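Kindly go through the following sequence and its backbone structure tokens. Advise at your convenience whether the structure tokens fit the sequence:

___
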Amino acid sequence: MSTKNVKSVKNSLKFKAVPREGALTVRVGVKKFVLPLEARILSGDGYLFLSFSALSELFRVSERGLTAMAQDADATEAYEKLNPGRRRSRRKGAAPAELPEDLAKALSAIPEGFRLGFDANGAPRLVKTRNRRKKNA
């Protein structure tokens, strides 16, 4: 994978982060106020991505606190750790799995109200199925 700079990682993560309102607070004297800003935040494995409508920044998290990463710094590792993967959908047009005849015959011999289960040693056995009732609203 090619290296990514901080600017390209910030642009890529900006719309992948979930927007949250009321995520930032400010303390003035003894009162705590929620700032009326929408912030987009991603964090994990030593990195924090913080974005506002007009500003975004990539930070390295350490024991001493947060340090902003320089614009020309290598941010490949931060991108890999912060980038949420795409959800994979089922493939369309996948061939249906076929059940061998002897297996289908054996499964059809299982009595109603039971299912195939396995004990602690891995041996197959019949297990009574649970009948769950719907909860009354």
Residues 6-82 form one domain. The beta strands are 19-21, 25-28, 31-34, 38-44, 47-51, 56-62, 65-68, 114-118, 124-128.
